[in-house]
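User: I need a structural model of TetR family transcriptional regulator from Virgisporangium ochraceum for a docking pre-check later this week. Nothing fancy, just the predicted structure tokens so I can convert them on my end. Input:
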Amino acid sequence: MPTSRLSARQADLIDRLQALFLAEGFAAFSIGDLTDRLRCSRTTLYALAPSKEQLVLTVVRAYFRTAAEHIEARVAATDDPLEKLAVYLEAVASELQPVSAEFFADLADFGPGNDVYQENTRFAAHRVQALVTDGVKAGALRPVDASFVGAAVAQVMGAIQRGEIQAGTGLDAAAAYRNLADLILTSLAATGR
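Assistant: Understood. Predicted structure tokens for TetR family transcriptional regulator:
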């Protein structure tokens, strides 16, 4: 359901579902559990989506859409190419701060939700690639293969989502993204800047 057609009540429910799913995951919840937690009727939830799976997908899409809007708004606030890359990577980490390991695990196990995550990961990798290309052209970043940087970022993002980074390092998703940002920025910064 496009957010433009949501009533204020429905938009509030999507926000509350998003907060719940990000904190606790979504696989273990039944529609009955959700109505109890949100203090609403099944009819109210089914007005958002015709099934639990579609409801989850609606919430996952809303989360990633809103996160992307927040990230791009922060990036647009600066003109410096190195700062744009730094702001983008930090904004991604900030948007992932409320995301629990349970949400990521449920997302990985839910095909349509995982597809949304993978689509957003591809977009983020292309966005990093474009920001690196711009930074190299401006002399703010040392000359590197921006396609490789984008591909490497996509691999790490996938490993974060699958829980591999947390299992190997103990870092949650937001901390892992912040460390990825530090690695990229430190390794790509042009000398003499």
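Before docking, keep this in mind: DSSP finds ten helices and no strands in the chain.
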